[in-house]
Amino acid sequence: MRAYVIRRVIAAVFLLLVVSAVAFAIFFLVPRLGGANADDLASRYVGKSAGPAQIHATAVRLGFTDPIYVQYGRFVKGLVLGADYDTGPTTEHCPAPCLGYSFLTQNPVLPDLLDRLPVTVSLASGAAVLWLVGGVATGVLSALKRGSGFDRAAMGVALAGVSLPIFFTGLLSLSIFSYSLGWTAPGGTNPMDASTPWEWAYDLILPWITLAFLYAAAYARLTRAGMLETMNEDFIRTARAKGLPERTVVVKHGLRATLTPILTIFGLDLGLLLGGAVLTETTFSLPGIGQYAVVAITNNDLPKVLGVTLFGAFFIVIANLVVDLLYAVVDPRVRTR
After folding, report:
1. Which domain holds residue 300?
2. Are 288 and 281 a contacting pair, CB within 8 Å?
3. What is the DSSP string of 222-280?
4. What is the pLDDT of residues 62-110, one digit of tens each?
C-alpha cells in the first residue's frame, strides 16, 4: 500500500511538471510558430500609442527575446523560488509559488486566485454533494425498478439534464425563482459577504441546484448502467443465497462494485470545477475563478489566463490523486497490485 501511494504521488508531481510545460508552450511557443515575434507579445503590455522602439524595449525587459527554454526555466524557477518582474519604474517581487504577474493590474496572479477560491470552492462542494447523493440514489432506484414508471421518468429527466446547457437552465432558473417568485437570491450576489451560514446557503442554493442538475443526470445514468450489470453477477446471487438482507446485498456488494467508475468521473468533475466553473459563475455573476478567467480572456491578460490554466490543472491532478488513493478503500484488490 505504501509503495502504491508513493508511486501515485511521484506520478502526480511529474504530471504537474508536464502540464506546466505544455501550458507554457501553448501561450508562448505556439504564437511564435504562427508567425508572432517577441514584439508582438510585448505589444499587449504597452499602450496603444507606444512606438516600435518602446515595444521592443518592453519585450527585452520582460524577457520575451530570450529563447523559449530560458523563459520556461525562469517560469519554473518562479514557481519554486518566486520571481522579480521589472515593471519599469520599480521591480515587483512575486513570492513562490509565482503563477505569473499581471502587468495590466500590476499585481501577482496567485493572490487574486486565492481571493476568489472560496467562492468557487463553495459552489463546487455544495453542488458536488447534491449531484453525488441525488444522482447515485436515483441511479440505484432506477436499476432496482427497471422498466417501471419511476425508471422511465428518472431517465427522461436525466436525459434533459445532460442535454440542456448550464447557461440555459441557469438563466431560466433565475427568471423563475429569483426575479418572478423571489424565492432565491438574484445573480451578482457574493456569498462570501454573508454574515451567517444561512445567508451563505441562500445565496448559493440556486447555483447549487442548477449545477447539480447537470451533473446528477450523468451520474444517475452511469450508476443505473453499472448497477444493472453488477446485480446480475454471480457474487450477488451468492450473497442472496447466503440469506443476506437485500439492503446489504444492494449497498455493500452491488453499489460498492459500481463505485469505481463513479469515483473516477467524480474526481475529474470536482477537480475541473475547482479550477473554475466558468459558465455557472458567469451566468450567476459569482466572483469566482471562472469569472476571473473570463475577464482575463476579455482583457487579453496573458499571465492571468496562464495562471488560471495551471491553477485548474493543479486541482485536476490532485483530485485524480485522491481518487487513486480511494481506489484502495473501495476495491481491496488495488492494495495487492
Report:
1. 110-336
2. yes
3. HHHHHHHHHTTSHHHHHHHHTT--HHHIIIIIIIHHHHHHHHHHHHHHHHHHHT--HHH
4. 788 888 889 889 888 888 888 888 776 778 888 888 888 888 888 899 9
Of 231, 311, 320, the closest CA to residue 269 belongs to 320
53 and 29 together in one domain: yes
| Dist CA 245 CA 13 (whole Å) | 45
Total domain count, the chain: 2
Specify whether 175 is located in the same domain as 216.
yes
For residue 116, give the CATH number of its domain.
1.10.3720.10
Q: Is 148 helix (H, G, I), strand (E, B) or coil?
A: coil
Coil vs helix vs strand at 49: coil
Domain boundary among 81, 108, 135: 108
In the chain, DSSP assigns E strands to: 83-86, 91-94, 101-102, 107-108
Query: How far apart are the C-alpha atoms of 24 and 6, rounded to whole Å?
Result: 27
Q: What is the reported pTM?
A: 0.81
